[in-house]
User: What shape does this take?
Amino acid sequence: MSHHITEVKNLKYSYPGGKEAVSDISFRILHGESVGIIGANGAGKSTLLLLLMGILTPQSGEVVIGEVKMTKKTIPSIRQRIGMVFQDPNNQLFMTSVYDDVAFGPRNSGIGEDEVAQRVAHALEQVGIEHLGDRAPYHLSEGEKRAASIATVLSMQPDILVMDEPTSSLDPQSRRRFIKLIKEFKHTRIITSHDLDMVYDTCERIIVLKDGLVAADGAAKDILSDEKLLGECGLELPLSMQGCPKCDADI
Ligand SMILES: Nc1ncnc2c1ncn2[C@@H]1O[C@H](COP(=O)(O)OP(=O)(O)O)[C@@H](O)[C@H]1O
Ligand SMILES: [Mg+2]
Assistant: This one.
């Protein structure tokens, strides 16, 4: 399907016994857009992504993916098209080898073992961990786990890629490789991160969350250069937007 519009309408979600994490969020993301979702800790970013995936069910409002409304019945088919990298890689890796984790999704969709092997090899190469296929995920470093969890989603070849803080704990070269990968990905990308330089590099549009609400939604170059707005939302300018204090030049 080529028109995977991702739409949320008046979403509200409170954790059981907790405060309201997502208060009233609406937006529409067109197929092929790359959107950064930013906000201070606790702003509701992860909760919003879990609602987008149908892992949490909103108390009110709706999620629509490619004109299909998210319901218990439609979740399995929607999950074939939308893949999520979780904030904690330990929630994504549960097999005894990295290879089996990356192969899990394709195998589950009934893809033949030859193509599974090709997809796994390609996904591992994309994140630079071809050498880790036989390793046990729980013995990997945090950065290696992060790369493996990204590979588990890439091997599914999703139309919509949702990633929760994907560059946290990646070393500089892995981060650089990730940025290249995201730029080359042709479908929809929805990425939360505190790494605003990565977000600026990879996203054309930014949605800023504050206390479970959308504080701003617009072009990355406008939002990420708006020091006042970022400050009000507990954020700072990306380093690439901060002038050098010594020589007043861009850094
Ligand atoms: N499992 C949970 N149970 C109760 N409250 C939670 C849970 N997860 C998150 N919250 C609360 O929901 C709010 C939004 O959290 P979250 O979506 O994780 O924010 P972010 O990803 O922007 O840091 C916070 O106040 C957080 O403490
Ligand atoms: Mg989070």
About this structure: The two ends are 42 Å apart (CA to CA).
